[in-house]
Amino acid sequence: MRMNIERTEELFKQLMTDGLGLDLTDPNLTDTPKRFSKMMIDELIVNQHNKELPDSLIKTFPNDYNYDEIIMLDNIPFVSLCSHHLLPFPGLAWFAYIPDKKLMGASKPSRVIEHFSRSLQLQENLSAEVIDSIMEKVEPKGAMLVMRAVHGCMSCRGAKTGLNAGMLTSITRGCFRDNLDTRLEALHLIEMSMRVN
Predict the structure, then answer these.
(1) In angstroms, rounded to a whole number, what is the distance separating the alpha carbons of residues 165 and 64?
(2) Is the pTM of this model over 0.90?
(3) Residue 118 near residue 40, CB atoms below 8 Å
């Protein structure tokens, strides 16, 4: 099924008027259905129906010097949309890996996170999609991803937790899962990163 921006606008307009009783002659609401449709389809759920990761998003280089320690990319911003309430969950991610034969371009973890964020998501699933795609394409000795997000479905409705309560997910593969010392070293690097900001 493909996304249809005109049909989305039409149905959202009906939801606003027939369902919510809103007056679309209000100048602040007149173009809201159009803006909403464009935002959803062109920005927030771009990859909903095609989560296949393009090869161009993960550029690798030979690990010529056999680097075999942790490489971490920190404070990676992301925004995704909760599939339960269609509310955003923005946050930060920390990605660490120990390379084997390939090194990743420094911007590539950010691009992979951005790719999988652009769909209706659960944070737990987002974490798994990101790390598993990197493991498949880069084949490192191991990887670890920590994501922290503030969920709109908690902060502004339901529990109304405000902007300080968030969700942390941590997911490990390879040597980060098998070796406690490696995992603890990565967590220590994350702690150092958080102190800098």
Answers:
(1) 43
(2) yes
(3) no
